[in-house]
């Protein structure tokens, strides 16, 4: 048993989201031959501090496999009980999933509340949820988790035997609780279905507007919300804690070279994210499925960044988003004291951008990389506008996509534009024109293509 003198990897945890007094927690971590590595222990510590608990002791052990009754075995249960008594702990937190029977047996032995990793994450989500939809999603996951553990609350009333005169009130109360939970789950699922329908209508409207969707995904606390605020001038909540934001946020932005786009910020991921949470937040994560491009944000200064990338890829695969185009964004280069840069793959396409969302260094490189990744839908050409197309000219200038302007030999106005084809077609339709009505061939003396990807390959 290790009484909690903060490990080298344990930095002081962030303050809780509420004014409730910090609960004193005994942490339990088991090392298995093929189980979580040391970084999981690091992550567990930050999960605990993000929940507002105060770690006072840590119990570690090595096992070949979990004990069916208590997960850690009788000897370690005695150590946990001793730590609880000595430090007057309020809760024991396991860095592993426990069965309802294991939780019940441990609570009886240590005379203290016992919570597993899933329960801890659910508690953090309950603290962080801000919107109505977020609260419903968290409540659904909590009820699904609770439905297998109701027996703990009514142990003193249970009746294990049947027959006349032996059907006690505990059995009735337990069945009542289960029915109430089932009814509440159905009610929440119905309301979330309506929310998902409304989200689907929003996605269809965005598809009609033909604005590309760029979705931010990544490991929790990698700086997604900071980058989102930097790109959109929004004020999404940012804090140095796990799951600081849970609710999907969408903003309309203008990306140079692309035009209007929708930027979506979603919940962060962690290793071994409970499946109930993935299911509960599936409606929110569906914003990712409709994305034209994923920005996979990674903490570039993290020692275990490659493991974090793998964890995010697992969740993306689980929700069916693993086939979408991805641009990797390695954040926090200011902590590495390295310059911002773009790394390209063998075909010359950007695949990784190094930047700092906090300082803004490298943001223009990200804009360039996004534009190049969406370049397959670009228009890069000269236009000759009819005399009555003043409004179209003004809209092109307003979008900031006019690269050159001149007057032709016949006095007609000629513009060189570079913008996303969807945006281009939308502007032409508004003016009652087609591309063939205004397109001019690019002459050699006019300088060739302005497409950055074309410049790279020339």
Automatic annotation (TrEMBL):
Residues 1-21 are annotated as: Disordered. Keywords: Cytoplasm, GTP-binding, Hydrolase, Magnesium, Metal-binding, Nucleotide-binding. It is found in: Cytoplasm. InterPro entries: G_HFLX_dom, GTP-bd, GTP-bd_M, GTPase_HflX, GTPase_HflX_N, GTPase_HflX_N_sf, P-loop_NTPase. SUPFAM superfamilies: P-loop containing nucleoside triphosphate hydrolases (SSF52540). GO terms for molecular function: hydrolase activity. Residues 212-378 form the Hflx-type G domain. Its main location: cytoplasm. Monomer. Associates with the 50S ribosomal subunit. GTPase that associates with the 50S ribosomal subunit and may have a role during protein synthesis or ribosome biogenesis. PANTHER family: GTP-BINDING PROTEIN 6-RELATED, GTP-BINDING PROTEIN HFLX. Belongs to the TRAFAC class OBG-HflX-like GTPase superfamily. HflX GTPase family. NCBIfam families: GTP_HflX, PRK11058.1. This is GTPase HflX. It comes from Isoalcanivorax beigongshangi. The lineage of its organism: Bacteria, Pseudomonadati, Pseudomonadota, Gammaproteobacteria, Oceanospirillales.
């Amino acid at each position: 048993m290790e009484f909690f003198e903060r490990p080298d990897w344990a930095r002081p945890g962030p303050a809780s989201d509420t004014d409730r007094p910090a609960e004193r927690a005994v942490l339990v971590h088991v090392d298995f031959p093929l189980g979580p590595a040391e970084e999981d222990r690091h992550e567990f510590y930050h999960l605990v501090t993000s929940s507002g608990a105060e770690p006072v002791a840590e119990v570690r052990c090595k096992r070949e496999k979990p004990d069916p009754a208590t997960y850690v075995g009788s000897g370690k249960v005695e150590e946990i009980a001793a730590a609880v008594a000595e430090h007057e702990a309020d809760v024991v937190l396991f860095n592993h999933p426990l069965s309802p029977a294991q939780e019940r047996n441990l609570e009886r032995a240590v005379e203290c509340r016992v919570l597993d990793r899933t329960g801890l994450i659910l508690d953090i989500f309950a603290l962080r949820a801000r919107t109505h939809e977020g609260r419903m999603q968290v409540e659904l996951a909590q009820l699904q988790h609770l439905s297998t553990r109701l027996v703990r609350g009514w142990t003193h009333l249970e009746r294990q035997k049947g027959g006349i005169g032996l059907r006690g009130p505990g059995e009735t109360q337990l069945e009542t609780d289960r029915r109430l939970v089932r009814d509440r789950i159905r009610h929440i699922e119905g309301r979330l279905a309506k929310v998902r329908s409304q989200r689907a209508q929003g996605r269809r409207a965005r598809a009609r507007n033909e604005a590309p969707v760029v979705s931010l995904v990544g490991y929790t606390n990698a700086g997604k919300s900071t980058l989102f605020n930097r790109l959109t001038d929004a004020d999404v909540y940012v804090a140095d804690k796990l799951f600081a934001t849970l609710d999907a946020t969408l903003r309309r932005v203008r990306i140079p070279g692309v035009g209007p786009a929708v930027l979506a910020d979603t919940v962060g991921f962690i290793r071994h994210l409970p499946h109930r949470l993935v299911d509960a937040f599936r409606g929110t994560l569906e914003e990712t499925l409709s994305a034209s491009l994923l920005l996979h944000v990674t903490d570039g200064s993290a020692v275990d960044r490659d493991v974090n990338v793998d964890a995010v890829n697992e969740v993306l695969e689980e929700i069916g988003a693993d086939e979408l185009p991805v641009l990797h964004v390695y954040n926090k280069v200011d902590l590495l004291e390295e310059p911002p840069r773009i790394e390209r793959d063998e075909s010359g396409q950007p695949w990784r951008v190094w930047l700092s969302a906090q300082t803004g260094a490298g943001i223009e490189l990200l804009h360039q990389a996004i534009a190049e990744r969406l370049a397959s839908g670009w228009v890069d050409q000269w236009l000759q506008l009819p005399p009555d197309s003043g409004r179209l000219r003004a809209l092109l200038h307003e979008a900031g996509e006019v690269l050159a302007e001149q007057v032709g030999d016949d006095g007609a106005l000629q513009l060189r534009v570079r913008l996303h084809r969807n945006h281009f077609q939308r502007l032409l339709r508004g003016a009652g024109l087609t591309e063939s009505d205004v397109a001019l061939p690019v002459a050699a003396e006019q300088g060739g293509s302005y497409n950055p990807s074309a410049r790279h390959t020339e």
